[in-house]
Amino acid sequence: MNKSILLSFIAAILILLPAIAAASTPLIITHSSSMPPLAFINKEGEPDGVLIDFWKEWSEQVEVEIIFKLQPWKEAVQETVNGKADINGGMFYSESRAKKLLYGDYLFHIKGSLFTTPDIIVNDQIADGQSCGVIKADYSKIFMEEHFPYTKLMLFNSAAEMFNAAAEGRVKAFVADYPVAIYLLSELGIANSFKCVKDLYTRNLYPTVGRHNPDLIKRINLDMAAIPQKRKKTIINKWLDFTPDSEEHRKTAAAIVFLALIAMTYIHRNEIRTAFKFVKDKLV
């Protein structure tokens, strides 16, 4: 092998090394450590939630190793921006975030809602002087600042911190993603202490990457689209297919049926009495 061929071979290897390293390096996917059922650390200390299952499915689809890094939401957003994490598992779109991040195709949509204790009256505005809890760097904070600029906001570092404050009676109103709120209120045993008084927005959840990584977001879109819709629906239904009022609906329906039976019995009491007498006479 002459010198020129050897140099060309070495140059080709040097050019390919970054691509080889990138292909073999696990992708770091970050999100909140306390936003169940979207993403959270479960009792076994493992990442869990609908977004975790989505990205596991994506990883199997593309045969790429991934590592989940769940942390406080503000840090998760910041590490996506500065490249310490490759992918943020899912967030709402906002113009301020779009200046720092690249958004992929949406995964699914969820709604954000206002929850209060039963004693708070809410019309077009939250009661005068009543503060409202939101999570730092969460879309709920952006929404409240834009649509309720005169409402005093109580800022929390994580969903866990905000809901613990609610359980302790330090928060009487808060805005949160509806499935997260229902899940945590139930987990903390305070589901009856708060009511959903208003749905404020319904928005799509998107994967994001830093603006320095356009090729990665294209790859995410392409491979996520290849996952069968049936499989996506199964993942979503596993975590988000719940109706918190269903038990009350069942109780109400049972009560209505019971009252209807009583009413029918009373209305047709003479016919029923005659029928019983007829059967009794036949038996005798």
From TrEMBL:
Q: Does the keyword Signal apply?
A: yes
Instruction: Identify the residues that the record assigns to the Solute-binding protein family 3/N-terminal domain, covering every copy.
Output: 26-243
Q: Which UniProt keywords apply?
A: Signal
Q: Does the keyword Hydrolase apply?
A: no
Q: Span of the secretion signal? A: 1-21
Q: Which Pfam families match?
A: SBP_bac_3
**InterPro entries per UniProt:** Solute-binding_3/MltF_N
Looking up PANTHER family in the UniProt record yields: GLUTAMINE-BINDING PERIPLASMIC PROTEIN (PTHR35936:SF38), MEMBRANE-BOUND LYTIC MUREIN TRANSGLYCOSYLASE F (PTHR35936)
According to UniProt, the name of this protein is Extracellular solute-binding protein family 3
Organism in which the protein naturally occurs:
Maridesulfovibrio salexigens (strain ATCC 14822 / DSM 2638 / NCIMB 8403 / VKM B-1763)
